[in-house]
Amino acid sequence: MMRRFKFSHAIAAVLLAAMFLFLIVVPMLPGYDPYTQDLAGSLIPVGGSTFEGKFHLFGTDTLGRDMVSRLALAGQVSVLIGAGAVAISLVTGVLLGLIAGYFRGAAEMAIMGVADLQLSIPRVLLLIAVTAIVGPSITNLALLLGLTSWVSYGRVARGMALSLREREFVLSARTQGATAAWNIRKHLLPNVLPQMLIVGSYEFGQIIVMEASLSYLGLGVQPPVPSWGMMVSDGQNYLALAPSLSILPSIALFVLVAGLQFLSQALTSENDVVGVPTQPKA
After folding, report:
1. What are the residue ranges spanned by the domains of the chain?
2. For residues 32, 34, 38 and 42, what is the CA-based torsion angle, rounded to 10 degrees?
3. Residue 276's pLDDT is what?
4. Would you tell me which CATH number, out of the four given (3.30.479.20, 1.10.3720.10, 3.40.50.2000, 1.10.287.3510), belongs to the domain 2-20+76-271?
């Protein structure tokens, strides 16, 4: 257990540090411009240079745009969308889950009924249908991904609330006149939030993959803003001439998502299992 714990932390740290350094450092480099086109320097291979001698570490795309710059900007967009979606889904899921677990009865039936209904609909099809109606944009994408990802948080929060509501420190506060809102804020929420870090780290990776999938289908981030999914889709037309156009964004997506999944595994190992603490957190 201890060896696996250290291994997960190390892999997560290496992958995430490499990716976030790439996303932070590249925009600071001289000549960083993911939008400037140079048709005379299109499809330059990895490590190649233009006729003017300008070096391109990862080459250029079909319009002569620097691939390093576009990969970094696409990663920033994915992280921004993922962070926004995780924040929305975490707040929604924790709030609804705590209400369902603490109050039980009709509130629990209604909330978990909505959750079961949402789970019964394939998520990709739901996102495609709604995106086609409201239109693709970064804001709409973050909202839709967040509102379709709350169920995981809600189910974990509900399960812990069901157990915590019967604990001595909650019952004692209730007998002394504590309101439901006070109990949820003071006793349930602090004990639930650490477990949400595990769910959030896993869902972050899933949301980034979902964003890339929608962008691959043309329903996510729209040009000229780059997206890893859109870059993979565009590069498929040039696999024989420049396979790096699809391979490089795929590798970037893999590194970020793999790092997040190893982080989730490390957090799970640290907490052993999702359980209920024996002492209250004030």
Report:
1. 2-20+76-271
2. 110
3. 43
4. 1.10.3720.10
